[in-house]
Design brief:
The chain has one domain: 2-Layer Sandwich (GMP Synthetase, Chain A, domain 3). The protein is built from three helices and three strands. A three-stranded mixed β-sheet has the order 1-2-3. A hairpin with a 2-residue loop joins strand 1 and strand 2. The chain is globular, with a radius of gyration of 12 Å.
Length: about 80
């Protein structure tokens, strides 16, 4: 899942070298944290959070295939 979020985020931003994705486990849930440059934050979130919701939907669909629970946090 980490690689999926990283590929999508790098395609959206102006500074792909500043994209960092970390993954941590909390019980049965995997939390993926996406870090981008402050100037790229709006591009990752989108108007009214539409792009962020789309990223979360793609990750959720991929995680359901593996019977996992994955949350994406944009930091």
């Amino acid at each position: 899942m980490k690689e999926l979020v990283e590929v999508v985020a790098k395609a959206l931003v102006d500074h792909p070298d500043e994209v960092a994705v970390t993954e941590r486990r909390e019980g049965k849930t995997t939390i993926i944290e996406l870090h981008v440059a402050p100037s790229d934050m709006g591009k990752v979130i989108g108007k009214q959070g539409r792009i962020a919701k789309a990223i979360r939907a793609v990750v959720k669909a991929a995680s359901n295939k593996d019977n996992q629970r994955v949350d994406v946090e944009i930091v």
